[in-house]
Amino acid sequence: MNKTKQQAAKIAMAVVIGGGALLPFHTPASEASASVAKAGSTIQQAVDKLAKQGILQGTGDGKLHEERQVTNAEFIKMAVLALGLELDQTEAPSPQSKWYDAYVNAAIKGGLLQGDAAFHPNKQAEGSELAPIIAKALQRDVKSVQYWMQTLQIGQHKITRGEAARLLVFAQQAVRSESASIVSVKALNKITLEVKFDRPMTLGDETTAAAQANMMLSNGLKLVNQPRLKTGSIATYIVPVQTMKSGEVFSLTYKGKQTFSVTSGEEAIRLKDVRQVTGDTFEVSSSREEGVIDYGYVISAYAGGRGANAIVLEEDNSYNGKPLQIISSLASRQAVLTPEGGMPITVNYVGFTQSTDGKQEPKFRLPAGISLQPGVSYTVTSDWFELENNKFTAQQTEPLVIASAANIDGASISLSLSADPGDELFAYRSVQLEGNDGSMLNAQYRVQTRKAGTGIFDILNGGKLAAGVTYEVSPIGTWATAHGIEIDVK
Predict the structure, then answer these.
(1) What pTM did the predictor assign?
(2) What pLDDT, in 10s, does the model give residues 430-447?
(3) What are the structural domains, with CATH classification, of the chain?
């Protein structure tokens, strides 16, 4: 990477930047912003660092002129070199080539730019346009980069050469690395670890399989899902693990090279209420206002899709000065449902329901063939959460109503309900498609595809809808009803 930068620097023209300095805007102080500001260099330090790396050159008078405004082409060059994108060294420049062509091409290849048609190289760079570019280079969310810019007091309008240097030097800390190492580990609660690295892991190392292999836990514990970068952090991860036992101390060994001693989390997840959702499903709720937040609202991977619900926590996991307990991934979690006078029933978490539609209401489903009995009182317990109001009396519920279905591409269908359920009630549901030619297919809901009352169902086992066949759609189980719902395949 350094060799590439040095080679690129040799062919780069001196950057001449004109214009005046932009007054920075200010954001409210917080522990997280103070931490970011502390981690960042001053403008002079950043300019000097990029100059030593061969990324910035002086003008004709030998000065770096950090006060001058930067153009789009100049910023792309700085970003490509500072963040380690690969330059094509094989193609010789033609007489018609511009000095910035190699950097723009590298940015397009790396996904930083969509294409050069709409790229205006000599236009002064706008701060509002830089966050998506840096986010793509770092393979993370835009919200984090915007947060860094606010904290470093870099505005959304025309920015200076020095401001660009300061932002990029800070972003260099967030470049992913296979050699990333752990700095600290602590338990946040019974099911969640917070692991700080010196740099972010590669996307490959963040996958569930790789993380389970690389992060070996003692005492029979293991990760239940992949580590997730906290929004706004450089390299702090929320790591979901199996329920830790109170009073135990266990070890975490990373890639066989680093070992940390960890004291088990003592704090159970604080939940508020339980509510029946369908004849075989109930949900438990928590509230941000009462000091509990689902990790879906504070991790980089989901920040782009959560809108105003996504936030950046302070370093101590508080927000606006209020501590927040983080619910990490509930994959593979279970609870116990006990009917009054009956035997306990183990119920499983319904995947992808823990934070949908702006809510924090994970759902649990009874085993197949078992339903909630109207009039019976049930108690919900678990070894990983405490539920303030943990009893409910089951009611007779009406199943969802399938109103229509349509072929998408032969391998998938769209299915619409008569009304928007306002929640993820399709999760892990299936339908049967019976063809008028005697064929039979099953299709299962594709998670997180629901829009209002419509979701996508994928045909299982490689099946395909056949042209010229009419299929009657019916739900598998009692979760919904369907009367005369057909798909005519052309």
Answers:
(1) 0.86
(2) 999 999 999 999 999 999
(3) 2-172 (no CATH), 182-263 (2.60.40.1130), 269-393 (2.60.40.1220), 400-488 (2.60.40.1220)
